[in-house]
Every structure is written in structure tokens, then in C-alpha cells.
């Protein structure tokens, strides 16, 4: 009975940035739970190899190459998902960029615009593009992958943290406005997870030690450590959860 509530059987999920790291772990977990999965990322070869890997694992998966930061891509991604699977019930806004590391005064306006376009505007555009499909099928779920930086910004990640705080706020706004349409929206704030994206942090001994000293569980997280929470929030098991900011950070922000 409980296990069934975590099933995504018959559901369709679009996972941006689904070809590596946290997004790929979520795509795999959702496929294992019975969802049909569309993965999207910029590099066509990454999309192709991830789709092959998912299919080899028994998943009903497709992929599409797209830069979510480009205007117009949101509708194309949602349309491609619906035309591949006839439905979309889950949107995971996971793709993000951070082209700069350093103090705010050294961050160029172009970098600011790029970070906001991919990390905030794309989730907004994608949620809006998915909304009519969610409404016509009687509901849907938006899951935004934010960061501990949204809650406690760390040095060097200035505008990235700003973008994640905006994503958390977008999550709460969507939850409040779209709850009446049976659309839920939640955010996960991962702590330090072993992926390419964060390698400059966990490969730096000083930064790694700082993180581990602050965590209640002094362990580097793995992409899979986010996938279970994502499955809970996007399945019927999480049906009473919306507008939530869910930490998965080894206690870093506790
Ligand atoms: N790793 C951590 O410690 C950590 C901590 C907190 C939050 N997060 C968040 O977790 C999410 C996933 O990060 P990750 O660590 O798993 O990163 P990752 O391993 O580097 O994977 C990032 C994924 O996003 C895709 N991507 C990047 N820019 C894109 C764009 N403009 N359009 C479409 N796809 C794009 C990448 O593929 P392509 O290169 O093919 O585009 C890749 O599939 C991000 O939102 C990140 O902010 C990560």
C-alpha cells in the first residue's frame, strides 16, 4: 500500500539537465518508479548516451538537446515531451549554471543575466508552458532544484545564490497561485553533492573541510541522495506537500 504511493506508473516527467549528476539520478529513479521520462540538456551526445543508458536499464525514455536559457526553448521542450509520450505530469527544473566564482563586485552583468536566464527564467517559462497540460489532465507537479545557497549564501557563489533564492520564491508563488488547479510546486535545496558542477568545491581540500565541519553528517552527498526526496515530492506520497523548501544537505543549514 505504502509502496504504491511512491509509484509514478503512467506518469510522464520532463527533467532538465537530466544527462548528468542530480538530474540523471532523478531521471533514473523516476523511470524505476514507472514514469516515462524526457531528459533535456545542451549537448546532443550527452542526451543520446543518457537515453541509451536509461533504455538499457528498462526505462521508457527519450531525450532532447536544448539550452533552457534560450527564449522559446521551454515550449519546444514541453511540446516534445507531449508529442513523445502524449502527456506531461511532472516538470523537474534541475538544469542550472554558475559561470563565475568570486565576489559580487567582480561579476559582470552578462554573467548575471546568464545565471538568471538559466536558473530562474527557464523554470518560470517551463512551468508556464507545462501549466495548460497539467490543467487539462487534472493536475501536475513542479519540482525546482534550488540550493543551500538560497538559504545561507557562501562566499564566491554570490549571484548563483541570488538565483536560487529567486527560484525558492518562484516555487512558493507557484504553489500558492496554482494549488487551486491541483498543481503542486516544491523546491529541494541540495547541500554539497559529488557532481561535475560542484567539483571545484569538493576537490578543494579547504572548502571540503569547511563544509564537512558545518554539516551534522560530515559526508559528501551523492546524486542519489536527492533522488528519493524528488520521488516522494512528485508522487502521490507527497500529495499534501506544496510550497515546501526541502533541505537535503547533511544538516548544513540546521
Ligand atoms: N552538485 C551540488 O553540490 C549542488 C548543490 C546544490 C544545488 N545543486 C543544483 O543541482 C542541480 C544539478 O546540478 P548537478 O550538480 O547535478 O550538475 P551537473 O552534474 O553539472 O549536471 C548539470 C546538468 O544540467 C545540464 N545543463 C547545464 N546547463 C544547461 C542549460 N543551459 N540547458 C540545458 N541543460 C543544461 C548539463 O548537461 P549539458 O552540459 O549537456 O547541458 C547536465 O545534464 C543544479 O540546479 C544545481 O544548481 C547542485
Strand line-up in the sheet with most strands? 3-2-1-4-5-6-7
* Small molecules (ligands, ions, cofactors) in the structure: NADP nicotinamide-adenine-dinucleotide phosphate
Q: What's the number of helices?
A: 8
Average pLDDT works out at 97
Helicity range: 40-55%
User: What is the CA-CA span between the terminal residues?
Assistant: 33 Å
Q: Helices and strands: which structural class? A: alpha/beta
Care to give the gist of this entry?
44% of the residues lie in helices and 15% in strands.
Structural notes for this entry:
The protein has 254 residues and is of the alpha/beta class. The chain has a single domain (3-248), classed as NAD(P)-binding Rossmann-like Domain (Rossmann fold), CATH 3.40.50. The protein contains eight helices and seven strands. It has helices spanning 21-32, 44-56, 73-85, 109-136, 158-178, 199-202, 205-214, 224-234, and strands at 12-16, 36-41, 60-65, 90-93, 140-145, 183-190, 245-248. It has a seven-stranded parallel β-sheet with strand order 3-2-1-4-5-6-7, sandwiched between helices. It is globular, with a radius of gyration of 17 Å. Bound molecules: NADP nicotinamide-adenine-dinucleotide phosphate. NADP nicotinamide-adenine-dinucleotide phosphate (NAP) binds at residues 16-17, 19-23, 40-43, 46, 66-69, 94-97, 118, 145, 147, 190, 192-193, 195-198.
